[in-house]
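Example 378, ligand S-adenosyl-L-homocysteine.
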Amino acid sequence: MATKHTPLENIIRKQIAKNGPMPVSRYMELCLTHPDYGYYLKQNPLGRDGDFITAPEVSQMFGELVGLWAASVWAAMGSPSEIKFIELGPGRGSMMQDALRAIKILPQLYKAVTVHLVEPSPALRAVQDETLGNAKHVEWYDSLTDVPEGPAIIFANEYFDVLPVHQVVKADDGWHERLIDVDDDIFVYTVAKEPTPRFDVLMPPHVRAAPNGAIYEWRSDTEIMDLTRRVREQGGAALIIDYGHIRSEAGDTFQAVAKHSFTNPLKNPGEADITAHVDFEALAKAAASMGAKAHGPVEQGAFLNKLGIEQRALTLMKSSSHDESVLVAAALKRLTGKGRNGMGQLFKVLGITHPSIETLAALSEPEPVSNLTGTMKR
Ligand code: SAH
């Protein structure tokens, strides 16, 4: 009896039948952003009832501190009378909502800010509209390069991890692109027959010596180059937060998550979030090579601690019921905690700025910058 395939599975199988095995990066791209069946394009996957929870969904504290961080950047830029807040892949819009509320303590900044969201998913644009509709006028774009000119602060939380990743596998004769093929009705991994020409030249020298069979992951530079060009040419800064490694290294981090559990990325394409860890060294190097300044990366726990998250949690707890306080304490632990259940160590934070901005709060200076005293809640 023939197995029933999802529509996206059929599309991928047809492409493989026609063109041969498909690079992992192309498979990931189709799974996430196929116009009709892509995971992000057809639904809102975020939240407790969805497939996964991100830092802004864990607690309002996250977006608030990001907002205060942005306030310090704006001050370092000389408090311009117009500043764009641009967010890449804003999900439900919660981080922007919390950041905007936090910066209301600086009316001059709040007035200066316009909001620009880069989001391919119509389903998520609708959710963002609902979240942010009352706060500020919002404009949406398909790409960062479509956002009108002007100094900006760019935010990207859990954005780079969803961008298509290439995997190459080390062998005696070089690094071979990892591909996906069909075998006996299921998707399986294979590798390109020929090594990618001169791939060794492109990769970080300390990864070249990896043993045979090692997997190295890399992404196209397009996104980081667009972002860097923008801050270098028009002023401002970008804040990139994601799970990943501070140093480029070999390793297979291609993974799928559905309903808060890991699943096999080769099964049920389009039904799970597929990601790979972010190589922060590669991002920082690309930014520096284009004449911008990279700050960090640092671990998310250290970043939030320096921004004063403990103080903020205490303030929130003071005005909360016992049950709410327990949730605030748990959120603090989740956002800053080390180890497998915490995001504090696994997630890293990288700042990229115009070269005139020499230091960034919590990324290149030792002391907390905020003492958010308000008790306002979401
Ligand atoms: N930043 C949010 C959401 C993270 S999920 C949060 O922290 O909660 C990833 C986000 O990136 C979603 O908004 C998704 O629709 C968007 N996205 C996914 N693939 C994308 C792509 N190829 N290009 C641009 N945005 C993408």
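Summary: The pocket of S-adenosyl-L-homocysteine is lined by residues 32-33, 40, 46, 54, 56-57, 89-91, 95, 119-121, 124, 157-159, 162-163 (CB under 6 Å).
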